[in-house]
Amino acid sequence: MEVFVDPDICISCGTCIDICPGVYDWDDSGKAHNQIEEVPPNLEDCAREGLENCPVDAIREA
Ligand code: SF4
């Protein structure tokens, strides 16, 4: 799976980073971004949990 964070939608709440820091991190402008595009199998569950808990649906799965 791949995940993408839309910085125009992200409100910098930090939820996805708290849930799955191996996939999501802060970028230089204070928005979340995915530090890896292709999520390894062992991180898929937490990547998906971060996506599902984003309050503004800024993360999409590809
Ligand atoms: S959960 Fe959504 S709004 Fe919050 S930091 Fe992550 S992408 Fe941004």
Helices, strands, pairings?
Elements: E1 3-5, H1 15-19, E2 24-26, E3 32-34, H2 44-52, E4 59-61
Antiparallel strand pairs: 1-4, 2-3
Bound molecules: iron/sulfur cluster.
Low-confidence segments, ≥5 residues, pLDDT <50? Answer: none
- What is the C-level CATH assignment? Alpha Beta
**Assembly level:** single chain
Mean pLDDT: 96
> What number of structural domains do the residues give?
1
What small molecules accompany the polymer chains? Answer: iron/sulfur cluster
Q: Write the element-wise H/E pattern from the N-terminal end onward.
A: EHEEHE
Q: Helix segment count?
A: 2
Strand element count: 4
Radius of gyration: 10 Å
Amino- and carboxy-terminal Cα gap: 6 Å
The CATH topology is what? Alpha-Beta Plaits
Largest sheet: 2 strands, antiparallel
The percent range for strand residues is 15-25%
Lateral strand order in the biggest sheet: 1-4
- The helix fraction, in percent, is 10-25%
Written description of the protein model:
By secondary structure, the protein is α+β, with helices and mostly antiparallel strands. It has a single domain (3-61), classed as 2-Layer Sandwich (Alpha-Beta Plaits). Helices cover 23% and strands 19% of the residues. It has 2 helices and 4 strands, in the order βαββαβ. The strands form 2 sheets. The protein has a two-stranded antiparallel ribbon. Strands 2-3 form a two-stranded antiparallel ribbon. The longest helix has 9 residues, at 44-52. It is globular and about 30 Å long. Bound molecules: iron/sulfur cluster.
